[in-house]
Amino acid sequence: MTQRLQLYGRRHGRPLRRHRSELLESLLPQVALERPEPGTSLSPAPLFDAPVSDVWLEIGFGGGEHLAAQAVANPEIGFIGCEPFINGVAGLLSHIDHEGLTGRVRVLADDARFLLDALPDASIGRCFVLFADPWPKRRHWERRFIGPENLVRLARVLKDGAELRLASDDPGLITWMLEHTWRHPAFEWLARSAEDWRARPADWPQTRYEQKALIAGRTPVFLCFKRRDRSA
Ligand SMILES: C[S@@+](CC[C@H](N)C(=O)[O-])C[C@H]1O[C@@H](n2cnc3c(N)ncnc32)[C@H](O)[C@@H]1O
């Protein structure tokens, strides 16, 4: 039985260049995760070719440049990326191919909520949701990825002390994400001064959407939250 989760946004864009189409045929089957069936559990650590010290998750990785750069910078970590937009998946595959990350990156080319619902409690050490779709119209606000339902999902799968990194250049979405995440009892905002949310941390590679925002004269904001200890 397929779970009823409505995905907003597109799955396909412009026709892919030949090399990227070939990667979808040849490399994707090596790194792809099947959409987990409702009610099943998917333990993340055994998904990788070799043991990993932790598993980090990127939701809506776009072209995959951030995920790939994090994987290169953190060779002991296993990465899972979720992205339903197939052109973005092809972009990540090209980074995986170029950087030799086949053993350490897994891809769900689908809605991240299927994965979140299958992950065991406290199984993810860090999660990135960067420049998510802002859905500016009021009647679409409930489509925003960071919101009451998905914060419950994230709070469940994140380990105690895990970081949740959010970014946006959309003032409405920034306020919305801050309000919801701050209000959620599982999350603590780590900013101590304005510099902490104005400046992208050094270990946070730039994404394509951040570049687009800067070129368009918009100001990105970087929000780091910690998943509080369950025992506290
Ligand atoms: C505005 S783009 C940002 C891409 C990238 N993070 C960046 O900063 O360049 C948002 C991405 O989130 C993806 N997305 C939207 N809903 C999603 C969901 N439920 N699960 C996973 N990805 C999702 C979209 O397909 C899109 O590629």
Describe this structure in words.
With 232 residues, this protein is an alpha/beta fold. The chain has one domain: 3-Layer(aba) Sandwich (Rossmann fold). The protein has 9 helices and 7 strands; from the N terminus they run H-H-E-H-E-H-E-H-E-H-E-H-E-H-H-E. It has helices spanning 18-26, 28-31, 65-73, 86-99, 112-118, 148-157, 171-183, 194-198, 208-215; strands spanning 54-59, 77-82, 105-108, 124-130, 158-168, 187-189, 221-227. It has a 7-stranded mixed beta sheet with strand order 3-2-1-4-5-7-6, sandwiched between helices. Helix 1 packs across helix 4 (86-99) and helix 3 runs parallel beside helix 4. The N and C termini lie far apart (38 Å). The model has no long low-confidence stretch (mean pLDDT 96). The structure holds S-adenosylmethionine. S-adenosylmethionine binds next to helix 5 and helix 9. Residues 7, 9, 59-62, 82-85, 88, 111-113, 130-133, 145, 207-209 line the site of S-adenosylmethionine (SAM).
